[in-house]
Amino acid sequence: MSFTRIQPIPSTEEIKARLPLPDDLKAIKAGRDAEIRAIFERESDKFLLIIGPCSAHNVDAVCEYVNRLARLQDQVRDKLVLVPRIYTNKPRTTGEGYKGMAHQPDPKGTPDMVIGIKTIRQMQIRAFHESHLTAADEMLYPSNLPYLEDLLSYIAVGARSVENQNHRLTISGVDVPAGMKNPTGGDLDVMFNAIYAAQIPHVFFYNGWEVGTSGNPLTHAVLRGMAYQGRSMPNYHYEDLIRIAEHYLARNLDNPTLIVDTNHNNSNKIFSEQPRIGLEVMRSRQHSALLRNTVRGLMVESYLQEGSQKADEGIFGKSITDPCLGWKDTEVFVKELAEVA
Is position 64 within any domain? Predict the structure, then answer.
């Protein structure tokens, strides 16, 4: 074994005791969770929009973005539910370099996981306190989830994690909607198997305990396109959505719901295409009762500044991972979605 022990990690209870969620915010979260759950359980016709930067790497910029989103939420409240993406674990695809805010460096520049865990919880609480919008995060590292689970209203499992058994079993113990992305190769059976696995009960080893779960009926599908022989292949067009929805319903899974990711391989990683893609999905919903019932949200990558930058450039509110839609275009896009939702 070549592992070197660096330092013990504080327990979930210790971190939550140091950085508790105030009671007033707990009540707001319960209301937000109920509003979002109603979309998946068909008790609400509102449309879900999970929107924000590819990765959260600057606390002040993230909070500025989420505060703007809160003001926009007030304007579209009758039609849309906005859930800010505060993706604290997002690494670069190769695993080299930036590994997400959970790997925050100490003052000497050395990665320090204890500092990282505190930082991401502080950021999530601050963003929630200032905006009253509970967030979404991507569960890249299942062992990190307990440090944030009381703050989140949505959890995403990425295209490279969806086949991992630990991710599937962990989601089975979550009580908020969890999106399983189709893998990068596009195999829908992998995605549907992941949904099924997360919707049923399990007993397994987790963070030093034998645990039991009851299954998560709000686990659902996220379509992000696919890569084939070096080319991006979308799966958001009308014919794709009909085929996938029919396949989904044949599986007899709970709350069959499709969320369309407007970036990644669906946009050929051209971030400016996201509004066009999102509005096409809305037109498809208008054309088909099946899709109106099944396609119930979008994922959008958006930030204060459009595009992306290198990690050391230091431009406020600009992504250091995937390029994002800028705020001006985001605001126009969200208002257009509300008009057709």
Answer: yes
Whether the pLDDT of residue 3 is over 90: the answer is: no
- Amino acid of residue 184: T
In this prediction, residue 209 carries a pLDDT of 94
Q: What is the largest CA-CA distance in the chain?
A: 58
Chain position carrying tokens 């990190």: 144
- pLDDT per position as a tens digit, 181-210: 999 999 999 999 999 999 999 999 999 999
| Range with lowest mean pLDDT among 26-30, 107-111, 307-311 | 107-111
CA-to-CA distance for 67 and 59, rounded, in angstroms?
12
From CA 334, how far away is CA 328, in angstroms rounded?
10
Q: What is the CATH number of the domain that holds 49?
A: 3.20.20.70
Q: Residue 248: what residue type?
A: Y
User: Does 7 fall in a domain?
Assistant: no
Reading the block at residue 316, the tokens are 């406020």
Report the pLDDT value the prediction gives residue 107, as an integer from 0 to 100: 59
Q: How far apart are CA 296 and CA 285, in angstroms?
A: 9
On whether residue 3 sits in a domain, the answer given is no
Domain that holds residue 85: 12-340
Q: How confident is the model at residue 4 (pLDDT cuts 50, 70, 90)?
A: confident
